[in-house]
């Protein structure tokens, strides 16, 4: 039996219990532990990561590096200090990791006109769009000049909207994807740029194009990705905004009046979305009203590798949950103004010369609105207040402002943490590190953090690696899927063409360019070690046919490495899906034994089952039927699709996943369906059984599977954060016993009649570190009332959602919705939701089980 603890309240010299008195004959429901101060002093502050880099690890990088000089974009002559320090816009030198698992190629740095994405042949398809539809569109082909003089607003908006696309007023669509490319230049804009559904807006990463607001710009939002209509509502419901990207840009508002409340990006969005490698240049005048990033709604999400210079608030953000990594913020009044949250994970944040670092004090309707946040591997410098929380006149909900700081480095920060009325953790005029500190339920303290497995770290911080842009490579380094004979039309069988292409590219050291399209495959696609694959506008690999239809003989749709194979791959910007009944499909099987120093990377590689054109799993085939009791005999077999969505096998190791969404569709995304709900039955979500471990999951979500969303079995050394799950909306009709039987060889959980699946299950595993978890159950047979505030325990959507079985685990900010018991440990329910009310969610700040004071493994 392993030991466990819950940091419900913090104490310094004794053990306290909240809500119950410990019994000497049985484990207490809630236990706290003695806290000791572990604040340490560093000789000097660390340097923030360089901006605009395709690799953000700096001295922590474990691979060889090449140096690239990023030249200023043509027409941009502002020499305002670059946010990372004394560098100016005249030149910026950054260090990037060479792409490719071996890290041995050192290509010649390209000029500004040599970016491969601009030079490869563009022949991507959108099979369900109008004839002649263009997926790739260069803004200069639509009349944009980029000369720093002409007004390019109309041309840019035309490039985005061309082709009868899904704009404001359309409920959503996957049929008109677009990649809108900005070559280097300075683009003057006088009115908002309006983003459309399913759009990638991408600039040249070697010479970042500048989109500069004119002095007469007077709108609330600059790049408006979800505009408000005349009815006061967002164009798209923020929780249904998926599959969009913005990357490699400079957004410059410095000529806009400092008195105008304006945000560079308006980003109310949800899963499978990203903002990366963007520089925000804002006013630095005293009392200015500029904001860099504004988010007010949604269910995100990931942003990373952003640089903010100036502004009243670099970020003003609220959302159900988000992962934000590698943000550099300088010269703002408030670096991060948190409007609201359920859970939020901040990793690798560098703040310098602001007045407030993180502001979690927001109050609305008499309640504190920030439920929880985790900040780790970050630094705050030359800023009077590092973190502010609470309000002197508001103390509800009880668990509000549940905050964790771990490995946060300070330099010249007077108040490390300021509470509702005074300083609760002092800073220092010099350098100081907060090893671990937390606040919840009106109490706070420093404490000893869990040991970090050496396999997961680089220089003390957790290992990170950003999505490669391959900017160092010329167009000749890329092999096109369509040039190789794949049709991508959703009709032809592209299995053979794709397999030959991927094998050829890996052997030749080339990069596979998966043109936009639907690649129908009828047997397994095999990705060998050494492969590099990147997609255009999120192309789809679509399984089809009898090969994947037998649940008694499951087979992978995409197999990364053969069993027993060693090495690494890189894979980005793609979707793996099923077509029709595919009860035996394992959508992604990962077998590679990758080294911890150079792990495999998957960035924005999503699993999507149903809900889109071409899937044969839409409203017409799989409409919900809550009024009909579903049994093994009458379940619609045409809607059983997916044995297992993602499998990390026993022999696999060294896998980094960032912003990957594993989604069984709960509604139809296409025009005409109006987001109506559907029932698709997929057995299992993400299964990790890697015996060697070394797994990084940053900003991942898994939703709507039958048996579980995340399951970790016989594994070790896994970091997860922020993770997010939703139970299947149809459960318990049918319940978690239907349609897939529990199979012991797959370590399946066994359920009783009427029970719903696990959000997270951890079995016989060690070194599991969770930096934020949102485990949600919103429906009981499509009835949402069970998730509402004030619902009694017996009326919750499901009884339990998180199971830990004989494992070593540390969880920060466990947030649940719609579940009666928050944790089930070795089969025993431990925590009732009612003890941890935090607005719409319930929050446990720290849960530990089996964690000892042993040294790093």
Q: Quick one: biggest sheet?
A: 16 strands, mixed
Q: CA-to-CA gap between the ends?
A: 21 Å
Second-tier CATH architecture of the domain at 475-776: 3 Solenoid
Shape: globular
Structural class: mainly beta
CATH topology of the domain at 475-776: Pectate Lyase C-like
Count of separate DSSP helical elements: 4
Unreliable sequence segments: 6-104, 853-857
For the secondary structure, the number of strands is 57
Q: What would CATH call the class of the domain at 475-776?
A: Mainly Beta
C-alpha Rg, in Å? 25 Å
SSE topology sketch:
Elements: E1 4-6, E2 66-70, E3 92-96, H1 116-119, E4 136-138, E5 147-151, H2 153-161, E6 178-182, E7 186-189, E8 193-194, E9 199-203, E10 210-213, E11 221-224, E12 244-252, E13 262-266, E14 269-270, E15 273-281, E16 290-295, E17 298-299, E18 302-309, E19 313-330, E20 334-352, E21 356-360, E22 363-364, E23 367-368, E24 372-381, E25 385-389, E26 402-418, E27 423-440, E28 443-446, E29 457-458, E30 461-462, E31 478-480, H3 495-508, E32 511-514, E33 518-521, E34 525-527, E35 532-535, E36 540-543, E37 555-560, E38 570-578, E39 585-590, E40 600-609, H4 619-622, E41 644-648, E42 653-658, E43 661-664, E44 684-688, E45 693-703, E46 708-713, E47 716-726, E48 758-763, E49 766-776, E50 798-800, E51 802-805, E52 809-817, E53 819-821, E54 824-825, E55 828-829, E56 837-838, E57 841-849
Parallel strand pairs: 4-6, 5-7, 6-9, 7-10, 8-11, 9-12, 10-12, 11-13, 12-15, 13-16, 14-17, 15-18, 16-19, 18-19, 19-20, 20-21, 20-24, 21-25, 24-26, 25-26, 31-32, 32-35, 33-36, 34-37, 35-38, 36-38, 37-39, 38-40, 39-41, 40-42, 40-43, 41-44, 42-45, 43-45, 44-46, 45-47, 46-48, 47-49, 48-51, 49-52, ...
Antiparallel strand pairs: 1-57, 2-3, 22-23, 26-27, 27-28, 29-30, 52-57, 54-55, 56-57
């Amino acid at each position: 039996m392993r030991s466990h603890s819950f940091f419900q309240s913090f104490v310094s010299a004794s053990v306290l219990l909240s809500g119950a008195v410990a019994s000497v004959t049985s484990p207490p429901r809630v236990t706290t532990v003695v806290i000791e101060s572990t604040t340490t002093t560093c000789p000097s502050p660390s340097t923030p990561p360089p901006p605009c880099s395709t690799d953000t690890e700096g001295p922590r990088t474990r691979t060889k590096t090449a140096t690239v000089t990023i030249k200023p974009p043509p027409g941009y002559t502002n020499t305002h200090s670059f946010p990372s320090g004394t560098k100016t816009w005249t030149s910026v030198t950054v260090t990037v990791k060479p792409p490719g698992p071996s890290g041995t190629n050192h290509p010649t740095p390209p000029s500004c006109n040599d970016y491969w994405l601009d030079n490869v042949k563009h022949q991507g398809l959108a099979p369900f769009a109008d004839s002649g539809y263009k997926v790739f569109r260069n803004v200069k082909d639509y009349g944009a000049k980029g000369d720093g003089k002409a007004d390019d607003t109309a041309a840019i908006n035309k490039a985005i909207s061309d082709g009868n696309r899904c704009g404001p007023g359309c409920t959503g669509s996957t049929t008109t994807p677009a990649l809108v490319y900005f070559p280097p230049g300075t683009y003057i804009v006088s009115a908002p740029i309006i983003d459309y559904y399913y759009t990638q807006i991408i600039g040249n990463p070697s010479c970042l194009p500048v989109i500069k607001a004119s002095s007469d710009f007077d709108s609330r939002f600059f790049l408006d990705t979800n505009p408000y209509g005349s009815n006061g509502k967002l164009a798209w419901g923020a929780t249904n905004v998926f599959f969009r990207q913005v990357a490699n840009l400079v957004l410059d508002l410095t000529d806009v009046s400092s008195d105008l409340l304006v945000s560079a990006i308006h980003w109310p969005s949800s899963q499978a979305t990203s903002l990366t490698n963007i520089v925000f240049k804002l006013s630095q005048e005293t009392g200015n009203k500029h904001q860099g990033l504004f988010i007010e709604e949604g269910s995100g999400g990931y942003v990373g590798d952003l640089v903010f210079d100036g502004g009243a608030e670099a970020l003003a953000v609220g959302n159900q949950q988000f992962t934000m990594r590698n943000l550099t913020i300088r010269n703002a009044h408030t670096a991060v103004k948190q409007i609201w949250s359920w859970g939020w994970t901040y990793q690798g944040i560098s703040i310098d010369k602001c007045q407030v670092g993180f502001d979690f004090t927001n109050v609305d309707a008499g309640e504190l609105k920030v439920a929880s946040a985790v900040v780790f591997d970050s630094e705050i410098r030359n800023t009077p207040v590092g973190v502010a929380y609470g309000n002197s006149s508001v103390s509800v909900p009880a668990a509000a402002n549940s905050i964790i700081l771990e490995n946060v480095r300070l330099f010249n920060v007077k108040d490390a943490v300021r509470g509702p009325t005074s300083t609760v953790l002092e800073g220092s005029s010099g350098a100081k590190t907060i090893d671990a500190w937390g606040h919840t339920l009106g109490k706070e303290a420093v404490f000893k953090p869990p040991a970090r497995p050496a396999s997961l770290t680089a220089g003390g911080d957790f290992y990170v690696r950003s999505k490669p842009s391959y900017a160092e490579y010329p167009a000749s380094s890329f092999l096109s899927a369509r040039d190789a004979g794949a049709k991508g039309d959703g009709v032809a069988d592209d299995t053979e063409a794709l397999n030959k292409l991927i094998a050829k590219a890996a052997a030749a050291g080339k990069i596979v360019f998966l043109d936009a399209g639907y690649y129908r495959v009828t047997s397994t696609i095999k990705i060998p070690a050494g492969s590099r694959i990147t997609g255009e506008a999120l192309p789809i690999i679509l399984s089809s046919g009898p090969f994947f239809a037998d649940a008694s003989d499951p087979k992978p749709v995409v197999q990364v490495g053969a069993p027993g194979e060693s090495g690494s791959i890189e894979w980005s910007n793609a979707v793996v899906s099923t077509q029709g009944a595919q009860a035996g499909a394992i959508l992604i099987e990962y077998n590679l034994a990758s080294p911890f120093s150079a792990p495999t990377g998957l960035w924005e590689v999503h699993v999507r089952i149903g809900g889109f054109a071409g899937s044969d799993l839409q409203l017409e085939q799989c409409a919900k039927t809550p009024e009909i009791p579903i049994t093994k005999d009458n379940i619609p077999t045409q809607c059983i699709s997916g044995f297992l969505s993602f499998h990390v096998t026993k022999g696999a190791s060294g896998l980094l996943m960032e912003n990957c969404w594993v989604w069984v569709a709960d509604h139809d995304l296409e025009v005409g369906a109006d987001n109506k709900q559907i029932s698709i039955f997929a057995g299992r979500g993400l299964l990790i059984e890697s015996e060697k471990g070394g797994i990084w999951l940053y900003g991942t979500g898994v939703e709507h599977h039958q048996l579980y969303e995340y399951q970790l079995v016989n594994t070790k050394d896994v970091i997860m954060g922020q993770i997010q799950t939703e139970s299947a909306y149809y459960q318990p009709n049918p319940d978690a016993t239907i349609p897939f039987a529990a199979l012991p060889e797959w370590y399946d959980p066994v359920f009783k009649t009427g029970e719903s699946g696990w959000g997270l299950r951890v079995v016989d595993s060690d070194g599991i570190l969770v930096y934020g978890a949102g485990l949600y159950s919103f429906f009981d047979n499509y009835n949402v009332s069970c998730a509402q505030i004030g619902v009694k325990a017996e009326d919750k959507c499901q009884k339990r959602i998180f199971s830990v079985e004989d494992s070593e685990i540390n969880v920060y900010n466990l947030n649940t919705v719609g579940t009666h018991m928050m944790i089930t440990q070795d089969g025993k329910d431990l925590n009732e939701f009612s003890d941890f009310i935090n607005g719409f969610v319930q929050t446990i700040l720290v849960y530990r089980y089996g964690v000892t004071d042993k040294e790093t493994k």
